[in-house]
User: Fold this.
Amino acid sequence: MSRKQLFQSGTLGELILKNRFILAPMTRISATVTGDVSPLMTEYYKGFARGGFGALITEGVYTDRAFSQGYKGQPGITDSSQQESWKKLIHDVKSEDTKIIMQLMHAGALSQFNKFSSETCGPSAVLPKGEQMAFYHGHGGYARPKEMTREEIKAAISGFVEAAQRAQDAGVDGIEIHGANGYLLDQFLTDYSNLREDEYGGNVISRVRLTSEIIERIREKVGKAFTLGVRTSQAKVNDFDHKWQGQIDDAKIIFTSLAKAGASYIHTTELLATAAAFNSGNAVASTSLAGLARKYSDLPVIANGGLNSPDEAVEMIKTDQAQFVAIGKGALAAPDLPNKIQRYEQLPEFDFAILTPIADIKKSEISHA
Assistant:
């Protein structure tokens, strides 16, 4: 398989993408104070669409006016004003023959800013590891969350469902549920942050239940033909080294459950997408997390994590570990990365200065795009 085949069309749920390159979701805290899309955001996303990406996955968008917001400057989709503000951005991206998928996110215990609540919440009242991220306006440790009641869990589910309907009405091509990186749904999945004794806690079947229920409820709302994906990971923004305790057994249960719930695709993210998911010496365990998602879900897989090299991207697809690659830092360095690869041009190195002191969208990025 040559790099030319990275530019073959592929199917993601019901969507046909013009190539295998997808923009990874990246928090850029550049929405207005009311959570609406800003003009800078529209230009930012348009740059990646013009740069040749087959699809863009938006940054995580908060889903309700209770506990979901995680960052100052984060966009939302909780009311008619926010919904309306997405329409121009969506139109401009789609006019470049690029699909757009909105990622829906609930920060849970990792919330660093929430204009709707002075508290954070999670599956259990467990203090999160690590410290808040300074480049997202955070400082110091995380607050200890309150344990969510059943009613608050129901409200969070409804927030995802209603946000999905608004996103669909605004014109997106698909929706991705953020079940990764230590945010609320991942907090429910993780053994040490979920100490519940009800149907949402205990073994991994119960801990993945909330994500599955959200997928099921959204599927009922948006219809069978609408593309609905879910992002998963082992590592978190506050715990880079975390691995699923049950390893292969957990992976099988998690990915099978997400597929059964009605997901159209699985999006895995790791520090290095090509690395073995587990270090047990087992032949299956030496497969990447993306490869395990593909094996146990039998769904299209998007792999994310250090895949800026065309050769590594080709290898993931050639070996059927993934059907698409999601590019993050490499895209910030080169918003036209797919076009550069197609023209065999050298790719620039990522400069962390882009994300300092605050990881908002810089006007220099817009001119670069």
Remarks:
- The mean pLDDT is 96.
- The first strand starts at residue 10 and ends at 12.
